[in-house]
Write a structure and sequence with these properties.
Layout: E1 2-3, H1 6-26, H2 28-32, H3 37-54, E2 59-60, H4 66-79, H5 83-88, H6 90-117, H7 122-131, H8 136-151, H9 156-183, H10 213-237, H11 246-263, H12 271-291, H13 295-299, H14 303-327, H15 332-346, H16 349-363, H17 367-393, H18 396-399
Length: about 400
């Protein structure tokens, strides 16, 4: 076995990003279907490792950097969240939240219905619904443990993690094709659209942004405070009725920090530095997550469970095209939002951002999409998902288990 330490893994992640950029630049298929660069590079490496495993060669990465990078990314989302701007887009946020909630209900209904039709435990259907797909690895692992301990579902955590891995891969793969299909119905703004300001948040990640060493240090300090404050808040809420994932706490602290400092006139967050750091964290996180995928875990899924996940992927694509796109106005912003919904509806918010960046880098900016998706996908969805899961667990055939 070849074990890469912290530095070796960081080098490998950087090379994955360079590989992904080269693949997307040279392979027409990847470019026209808006496949994110970290997804392209990461999947190639994961497939190579799968092949090496068949030759009895295994590579082990040090993933200790993965969690801090993810938390740093969510900290930058919070620090970029101007509540005044969110208030202006309140109606759009509410409509998108409605669409997201609808998908949660559909995913669980579809999962449970298919599980019963295939003769599986309905809990496996719920596990292959919003628990692991919209919920991701963290939510899947947490509920998997509950399903094993309280309901006696064997290997629930392993199934949840495998399902979340499946979703992470497919969420990064279908967002671009869905957006490409929808682009034939809308008018794109174009890359040459003139904007009166530097790009905000995670828009146009390849756009040059003016930064200084001192302001970069200030932004690093704000991110560090968000990470520390979020960890403390998570510890205080642990075991209570208000318990939330660590990344939600970090994002919440970032929102409070940015808007609190502005409200009292103490400091104005420099979005260009925060967004640069956020984009770096996002890219490295996705590279490490995807190159570390154990694709053999997906191959080990039982055929009926794999069938449910395959149908869920089709449902996600159809929901994005026929529900999300139409609810959000059937315009260019709606197409970008649909691509983002595919990202976190099957995988995670970082995948959603990567999907949208792949689209906007080709067709032009979408300010509203990058305002709405990070907040809904990173904050509101987890809270609503918990409520939806508990509502389904209250159904008669679960209560008698």
């Amino acid at each position: 076995m070849l074990e890469l330490d912290f530095y070796g893994t960081l080098v490998a992640a950087s090379l994955v990003l360079l590989l992904g950029r080269g693949l997307v630049a040279r392979i027409h298929f990847l470019r026209i279907y808006n496949i994110p660069e970290p997804v392209a590079g990461g999947l190639v490496v994961a497939l190579v490792l799968l092949g090496l495993r068949g030759l009895d060669v295994q590579v082990q990465f040090d993933t200790s950097l993965q969690s801090p990078l993810m938390l740093a990314f969510f900290a930058t989302i919070g620090l970029n969240a101007d509540l005044a701007s969110l208030k202006k887009g309140g109606r759009v946020v509410a409509i998108f939240l409605f669409a997201v909630t609808g998908l949660l209900l559909v995913q669980n209904a579809m999962g449970i219905g298919l599980a019963k039709a295939l003769g599986l435990d309905p809990l496996m259907g719920l596990l292959s619904g919003s628990v692991s797909l919209s919920g991701g690895h963290g939510t899947g692992a947490a509920w998997g443990a509950t399903f094993s301990e309280k309901y006696g579902l064997v290997s629930a955590s392993e199934l949840a993690l495998a399902a979340a891995t499946f979703g992470l891969v497919l969420g990064g793969l279908i967002g671009g094709p869905v957006a490409r299909l929808l682009m034939s119905r809308v008018q794109a703004p174009g890359l040459d659209q003139q904007t009166p300001h530097l790009p905000k948040g995670f828009e146009q990640p390849n756009k040059e942004r003016l930064i200084t060493p001192f302001s970069m240090v200030e932004s690093l300090a704000l991110i560090s405070v968000s990470l520390m404050g979020g960890s403390v808040l998570n510890g205080l809420l642990l075991g209570t009725a208000f318990e939330l994932p660590t990344f939600v706490c970090v994002l919440f602290v970032g929102v409070l920090l940015r808007n609190g400092l502005a409200m009292f006139g103490l400091y104005q967050v420099f979005e260009r530095e925060v967004s640069v750091l956020g984009n770096v964290s996002l890219s490295l996180f996705l590279a490490i997550a995807l190159m570390s995928l154990k694709l053999w875990d997906l191959a080990a899924l039982a055929l009926p469970f794999f069938t449910i996940l395959a149908v869920q992927t089709l449902v996600m694509a159809l929901f994005a095209i026929f529900v999300t796109f139409r609810l959000m106005g059937s315009n260019y912003d709606a197409a970008v939002l649909a691509a983002g919904h595919c990202g976190f509806g099957l995988g995670a918010t970082p995948t959603a951002i990567a999907n949208m960046q792949a689209v906007t880098q080709r067709y032009g900016p979408s300010h509203i999409a990058f305002l709405v998706v990070p907040m809904v996908g990173a904050f509101f969805i987890d809270i609503i998902n918990v409520i939806v899961i508990k509502l389904y667990l209250a159904l008669p055939f679960f209560t008698v288990l």
